[in-house]
Design goal:
By secondary structure, the protein is of the alpha+beta class. Helix content is 46%, strand content 14%. It is globular, with a radius of gyration of 22 Å.
Length: 348
């Protein structure tokens, strides 16, 4: 039951927050194109006695962080409600997403029956966590997402139901004859791929237009695969890339190559030392997270070159991550992600 409470809570809230973030991006694009004033949009409302658009974002954010915190018995991060620009509202949504990423299914153990005090909304009662989730948390959250959608649509922003639904779950099917989502490359083939794409094997920290920073991956009190997946999001949209392993070891006496079952599952018979490069398609994001998690767990080293080359993530000995990126938001997002997880960026 505890895992169901997590599954029914966190993914739904993350999806809705992603929708709100997409609305903010569309708003900024429309403002940049001279179609709207940011202040007018953020103050827009459907009726004189309702809260403006900016407050819809704030309250949805509050629901998304405070509700799960009540379910797991935590204090949620406090935000000052002082946002004035579209960028500041977007940052608030990012911080909310980062907090939700720190929550694990184990924290929701017993939350179905946990009594949630309703005094915060001036009600002299309490309800079980299950009732709170179904009757209040999710309906209230979706209400503010829907109202934000309606205000923007009313103001003339081009939005449809597909924007409100956001990215739907599902698995991409690959028709017969299409290229596989993953290809295994020898080291010379990997180096050639880098050259063909204009990427350096080792990024220079002097490269103009890119930020360079590093941080420790262990030990942090969060599930490793969740942390890696969240960091992948912070570093930018995943369009595929190349993962090149360059240092690995295991105890031959007691175990085999930990990557062998993975390679066999993709019909690759050559050993790791022959094909240390993995060319990853856009649909292989989950495989990429799993592989990076393996690197950290085994204390291996390797580099992930994000296509089309804006970001390079190097993991050294499973402990430290070096980032070279042209994404101007990446360092700030990663810094916040680490802060809520008990870590920080260290000098390079």
């Amino acid at each position: 039951m505890s895992s169901n409470m997590y599954d029914d809570t966190v993914p739904a809230l993350l999806r809705g927050l992603g929708v709100l973030q997409s609305y903010l991006h569309k708003m900024q694009a429309a403002v940049d194109a001279g179609q709207f004033s940011a202040e007018e949009l953020l103050q827009a409302r459907l009726a004189d006695d309702m809260l403006p658009l900016g407050r819809q974002f704030q309250i949805a954010s509050d629901n998304a962080k405070n509700g799960p915190a009540r379910l797991v018995g935590q204090d949620a991060p406090w935000f000052a409600d002082d946002e004035r620009t579209i960028g500041e509202y977007s940052h608030r949504i990012e911080k909310t997403i980062a907090y939700l990423r720190t929550l694990t299914p184990e924290l929701f153990e017993g939350s179905q029956a946990r009594m949630i005090d309703q005094s915060y909304r001036h009600a002299g009662s309490a309800m079980s966590g299950g009732d709170y989730l179904r009757a209040l948390l999710l309906p209230n959250f979706y209400f503010h997402v829907a109202v934000a959608h309606s205000i923007l649509r009313h103001e003339g922003l081009r939005l449809g139901k597909s924007d409100y639904l956001g990215a739907l779950p599902g698995q991409t099917t690959t028709p017969a004859g299409d290229a596989l989502a993953i290809r295994f490359l020898t080291r010379p083939e990997s180096i050639q791929w880098l050259a063909d794409n204009g990427l350096p094997e080792v990024p220079s920290t002097e490269e103009l237009g890119k930020s360079h920073f590093q941080f420790d991956l262990q030990p942090l009190p969060v599930r490793l695969s969740d942390l890696v997946g969240s960091l992948m999001e912070d570093l930018g949209a995943f369009e595929g890339g190349l993962l090149l392993l360059d240092d690995w070891i295991w105890d031959d006496e007691y175990e085999g190559d930990p990557s062998e079952p993975y390679r066999q599952a993709h019909n690759e018979a050559r050993p790791l030392n022959e094909v240390p490069g993995l060319l990853l398609g856009k649909s292989a994001r989950q495989d990429t997270v799993a592989l990076l998690t393996l690197l950290v767990e085994r204390k291996w080293s390797g580099q992930l070159y994000f296509a089309p080359g804006a970001t390079i993530l190097r993991i050294v000995g499973g402990d430290r991550a070096h980032v070279s990126t042209a994404n101007p938001e990446a360092e700030r997002l990663v810094r916040y992600r680490l802060a809520v997880s008990g870590g920080d960026i260290v000098p390079i």
